[in-house]
Amino acid sequence: MTINKVNTHIVPIEFEYHAPGSLDEAVALLEKYGEDAKILAGGTDLIPHMKQRKTEPKHIVNIKKIPELACIEETPDGIKIGALAKLRAVELSPQIREKVPMLSEAAGSIGSVQIRNLGTIGGNICNASPSADMATALMALEATVHVYGKDGAKEYPIAEFFQGRSDVSLERGELLTGFTVPYPPEGAGSAFEKVGWTTFDIATVNVAAVLTLKGGKIDHCSIALGACSPAPIKVALAEEILKGKEPTDEVLEEAMEFVAACVEPRKRWRRAPPEYRRRSSQALAMDAVGRAVEQARRHQ
Amino acid sequence: MEIEITINGRKRRFDVEPNKLLLNLVRDELYLTGTKYGCGIGECGACTVHLDGEAVLACMVLAVDADGRSVTTIEGVADGDKLDPVQEAYIEEGAIQCGFCTPGFIMSTKALLKENSDPSEGEIREYLKGNYCRCTGYVNIIKAVQSAAKKMQG
Ligand SMILES: Cc1cc2nc3c(=O)[nH]c(=O)nc-3n(C[C@H](O)[C@H](O)[C@H](O)COP(=O)(O)OP(=O)(O)OC[C@H]3O[C@@H](n4cnc5c(N)ncnc54)[C@H](O)[C@@H]3O)c2cc1C
Ligand code: FES
Ligand code: FES
Predict the structure, then answer these.
(1) CA–CA dist A3, A149 (Å, integer)
(2) Which pLDDT tens digit goes with each residue over A181-194?
(3) ipTM above 0.90, yes or no
(4) Which residues contact B49 (CB under 8 A, 6 or more apart)?
């Protein structure tokens, strides 16, 4: 984004503002206005986009008055995180730090304190940005997304949520209400790694890994890669290679070839050329898996 | 739209257009011009204010979204003519040159010291990552935060 390419001093478009107090009211508004409506959560993506007229909604539906959407709580199936939970809350939550520390690590890597005090976990995913850090972390953790619409609540695996660049599987009138992040298996190690132009920049590549060891061999293994294809992906081939093997340097290097092979070059990749992404995805995955292995060893 | 915001401890009512930013409300309607417009896209921190006690960027918040909430700007930090320890420390340590970034830095520093009364240099740098200063080179800012922390511990 070129600073002051347009006037970022004001929001240059006019819209009608709604602040529904319940999910059903929100759904009714979203149903009624369809494409003309945009949900406002933290606004850290939406407001700059509106300033630049990248999106010009006629209706803004602020969902922050809906009370139940900001929860973080432990349930038997995992940690339930409301879509409106602030990135800063995800970073600092004692439950998340204890049960799924990698998610807290990924949240803490986003923007600045001020951005994390505004930005929400739901907004991060609904952007459908291939580089969204929470998206990669939640993919590796195999989270379930919860969606609410006129037919009530439904849920599905997060991998099905991403439909490609800038697109998520929300239908007219639907909104994301939150996630359930299953507890990683006992003794798991996990890590999140990313690289950007600066430490305060969106990721050029990000990687998340969760794994367990059994008798020195990798047992459960989940690796997700972001910013290298239209949506974050699981690197199934690398996971398969690692499972059942001792994490020696040779084994890790072999698996990392498959991480690099997942990079799907786009015609206009402004941030970094494909070769940079291949190499850095490989290196970051090596670091993430390495760190997760060390952690798992300590837990044994 | 009619909204009510507590600004620097005083309840105020406004009639605003929904597209008005909190930044422009405090600057243009209340002439609280300490809060600065730097980049408008969340990167420089010059517009940092506290919203319900948390450091946020006024260039990214709609005024209507602050309805019913409480906002503190740099003008609400001193107690009359008596400066806040953080303000004093910035002056004493030479952490202010042109001063454009200073209100934002002070609001972030206050939020930091509320959470962590004795931050390390690394913690200070990490917390203030979202505030840019083009003059000081940051070294004196770090010193000012450390000195403010000492002052506040008494
Ligand atoms: C300076 C800066 C640095 C940043 N750094 C990073 C970074 O390092 N990593 C990163 O991943 N991101 C980064 N971001 C992007 C952004 O801050 C995050 O993606 C944030 O999580 C977005 O959340 P939000 O609540 O602010 O979203 P909003 O802007 O409110 O919404 C984003 C989009 O999602 C939709 N939406 C929001 N909530 C819902 C919902 N519950 N259901 C359906 N649709 C919804 C909105 O309509 C909108 O289209 C950065 C942004 C800035 C300005
Ligand atoms: S003006 Fe708000 S962050 Fe730069
Ligand atoms: S003192 Fe000039 S920008 Fe910081």
Answers:
(1) 38
(2) 999 999 999 999 99
(3) yes
(4) B22, B26, B35, B55, B56, B58, B71, B72, B73, B74, B107
- Domain assignment present for residue A38? The answer is yes
Q: How far apart are CA A122 and CA A111, in angstroms?
A: 16
Q: Which domain holds residue A268?
A: 191-299
Residue contact B62–A47, C-beta within 8 A: yes
Flag whether A29 is in a domain. yes
Residues 6 or more apart whose CB falls under 8 angstroms from that of A239 comprise A221, A222, A223
Task: Give the contacts of A119 (CB within 8 A, at least 6 positions apart).
Answer: A41, A42, A44, A45, A86, A87, A110, A111
| A127 pocket-lining for ligand 1 (C-beta < 6 Å) | yes
Indicate the range of A197-211, A215-229, B32-46 predicted with least confidence: A197-211
What type of residue is A86? Answer: K
Quick one: pLDDT at residue A165?
A: 67
Provide the number of structural domains found in chain A: 3
**Tens of pLDDT along A274-297?**
888 889 999 999 999 999 999 999
Cβ–Cβ contact B22 with A under 8 A: no
Within 8 A by CB and 6+ apart from A123, the residues are A41, A42, A43, A44, A45, A46, A83
Nearest ligand to the CA of A174 is 1
Q: Nearest-5° angle of CA A192, CA A196, CA A202? A: 85
- Residue-by-residue DSSP string for chain B: -EEEEEETTEEEEEE--TT-BHHHIIIIIT--TTS--S-SSSSS-TTEEEETTEEEEGGGSBGGGGTT-EEE-GGGTSBTTBPPHHHHHHHHTT--SS-SSHHHHHHHHHHHHHH-SS--HHHHHHHTTT---SSS-SHHHHHHHHHHHHHHH-
Average pLDDT over residues A86-98: 98
φ, ψ for residue A120 (rounded to 5)? -115, 160
**A-chain residue closest to B123, CA distance:** A113
Task: Give how far A7 is from chain B: nearest CA, Å.
Answer: 8
Tens digits of per-residue pLDDT, B68-117? 999 999 999 999 999 999 999 999 999 999 999 999 999 999 999 999 99
Question: Do the domain assignments include residue A278?
Answer: yes
For chain B, domains (ranges, CATH) are: 2-76 (3.10.20.30), 85-153 (1.10.150.120)
